[in-house]
Design goal:
The protein is 22% helix and 19% strand. With 139 residues, the protein is an alpha/beta fold. The N and C termini lie far apart (32 Å). The mean pLDDT is 89.
Length: 139
């Protein structure tokens, strides 16, 4: 391979359809649901609770538009403290981006700042399951 060539492989299952979020099943472990205040306050994310069997469920509903590093770090701290085995991001891009970063940070030490923009650390293998549920048709 020349220096500009690369290989990208990302196995992922995508399910599409009305009402599929309500048919989600997670068994055992600890689930962290990441969302914005609106989806938490209107009860949307709590409706998912019946999909989790024998799971501890916590909510991080402090995601703001264009999430700050402080917000991502606070969510990661919750994931670590509860020993999350599954991270679910529900909502728009900010919630899903936060959930993706937290899924990478959950089994690592340090701040998100340690891993980007010259922070010097490199993520190890992700140790938690990640599920994303978009509720918008954004970019």
């Amino acid at each position: 391979m020349n220096s500009s060539a690369f290989r990208f492989w990302m196995p992922v299952e995508i399910r599409y359809g009305t009402g599929l979020a309500g048919k989600l099943e997670v068994r055992g472990g600890s689930v962290l649901i990441v969302c914005d205040p609106f989806l938490y306050d209107n009860g949307t994310v709590q409706k998912l609770r019946s999909s989790f069997h024998s799971c501890r469920v916590e909510y991080f509903h402090g995601v703001e538009p264009n999430p700050s590093t402080d917000s991502v770090d606070a969510c990661a701290a919750l994931a670590r403290s509860m020993k999350a085995t599954t991270i679910i991001g529900i909502g728009g891009g900010s919630s899903m981006d936060t959930a993706k970063a937290v899924a990478c940070l959950a089994g690592q030490e340090g701040s998100i700042c340690d891993y980007y923009a010259g922070g010097g650390k490199v993520f190890g293998e992700r140790t938690v399951k990640l599920i994303l549920i978009p509720t918008t048709a954004g970019t």
